[in-house]
Design brief:
411 residues, alpha+beta, six-stranded mixed beta sheet, 27% strand, globular
């Protein structure tokens, strides 16, 4: 993702609080340098669960005096309904230059006035959060008004579970659920857990970092079910002619890696071509899970359709608000589709990912969805043609205020 860079919600993390527990996993080992890094951050986020339309957020911390594996988890704080919004700041302003989305993000008061954010309490166990966009009421041809939420908490590890009934999808639509420390990007990394681009239907997880973070030869095929994205058509640096003869797996996370598109990063692709967008929405959504575990040397990612939840995951979410909770255990969920190796004896030290916060945003067109508009939505690109410019054709489509944006482009 170019730097720029939702429902009963339970928040289980507070760095002003501490908690200890007995860890039932084997102790992990690490270099003295990495141990020193984590001794400064002993209160580590281990689990975050988000249930949207948008329904549930869990963040679970642990504190230990030794460098150990993760788990078991304990609930730390509960947020639901309108309290959800208190965990986030509303970014107010244009999209970043790197993303250049055809949208303006608005503050909380304006978002409420425009009806872009709302919470509906259906019953005690399943409040729903909704986020969407709208035209500018004063100028319908101006960039759309939209929402970008930036979490107030920072994390150095975690299990993040996003359960949603509906995600934004459609031509010109570019939603994302991700982790970043944007002011110092890419020094502290970026993890894109869910990113939809136009009508794409395959889930991907992407990491973007500073230099010296490569997955090449460090990930055995048996550790995951998915594959790497590919880089091809990169313009020759001397002639500018696209090179379609060379094809490379996108397994280097460095934003400026040679032989990959700028900021392509290392991108893992799900084996399922119905794991994102409309196909998920039509089946009551699903769960996107990411386990960021520097103690055990990996970042993993899963996607589950609503009818295919592992029993532990289903029970953990169903009992999240109960006193007797089922603890989420990723070891029982099967292989992830994405596996990234971090830490000692890998090609990427764990300190590439640090001090990140959650971001939800809904962008339109821009550097990614706009540039791909002609390829992903050729009929509309022809209808709204702007002298062959895919990006501008996408913007023209947005200015027509199509009903599809109201019907499908919402969290």
């Amino acid at each position: 993702m170019v730097p720029r860079k939702e429902e009963q919600i339970y928040l289980l993390s507070n760095k002003d609080l501490s908690i200890t527990y007995d860890d039932d996993k084997d102790t992990a080992t690490a270099s003295s340098a990495l141990q020193s890094f984590y001794k400064k951050n002993r209160l580590m986020t281990i689990s975050l669960i988000l249930l949207l339309l948008l329904g549930l957020l869990l963040i679970i911390d642990y504190k230990e005096d030794v460098f150990v594996g993760t788990g078991p988890y304990k609930l730390r704080e509960c947020q639901e309904g309108d309290d959800f919004w208190d965990a986030y700041e509303f970014y107010n302003g244009e999209d970043s230059l790197g993303s250049a989305g055809y949208n303006i993000y608005v503050g909380k008061n304006e978002a409420v006035d425009l009806g872009l954010v709302s919470s509906v309490i259906r019953n005690k166990s399943s409040p729903l959060i909704r986020m969407e966009s709208s035209v500018n009421p004063l100028n319908t041809s101006a960039p759309r008004r939209s929402v970008r939420l930036e979490g107030k908490k920072r994390y150095d590890s975690g299990l993040f579970l996003l359960s949603l009934k509906h995600m934004p999808t459609g031509c010109g639509v570019w939603p994302a659920f991700w982790l970043t420390d944007e002011p110092v990007w890419p020094k502290h990394g970026e993890i894109d857990i869910l990113e939809g681009i136009n009508t794409q239907s395959t889930a991907k997880t992407a990491l973007h970092t500073r230099e010296m973070c490569s997955m090449y030869s460090h990930i055995p095929d048996y550790a995951k079910t998915g594959s790497w994205d590919w880089a091809t058509g990169i313009p020759d640096r001397w002639t500018g002619v696209p090179d379609f003869e060379t094809k490379k797996e996108a397994d280097d996370c460095w934003a400026s890696s040679a032989h990959q598109w700028y900021n392509q990063g290392c991108v893992a692709v799900s084996e399922s071509n119905s794991s994102l967008g409309k196909s998920m929405n039509d089946n009551d959504g699903g769960v996107y899970a990411l386990e960021w575990d520097p103690a055990n040397g990996y970042i993993k990612s899963w996607v589950f359709r609503r009818e295919g939840f592992p029993s532990n995951l289903k029970d953990a979410m169903a009992t999240a608000s109960d006193k007797k909770r089922i603890i989420p255990d990723p070891n029982t969920w099967g292989l992830p589709y994405a596996y990234f190796a971090i830490g000692p004896e890998t090609g990427c030290s764990a300190d590439h990912f640090h001090n990140m916060r959650i971001v939800f945003n809904l962008a339109f067109c821009g550097a990614v969805a706009g540039n791909r508009f002609a390829k992903d939505c050729p009929t509309l690109a022809k209808q709204y043609d702007q002298n062959g410019d895919s990006w501008q054709a996408c913007n023209a489509y947005l200015r027509s205020n199509p009903k599809q944006l109201k019907e499908e482009a919402y969290w």
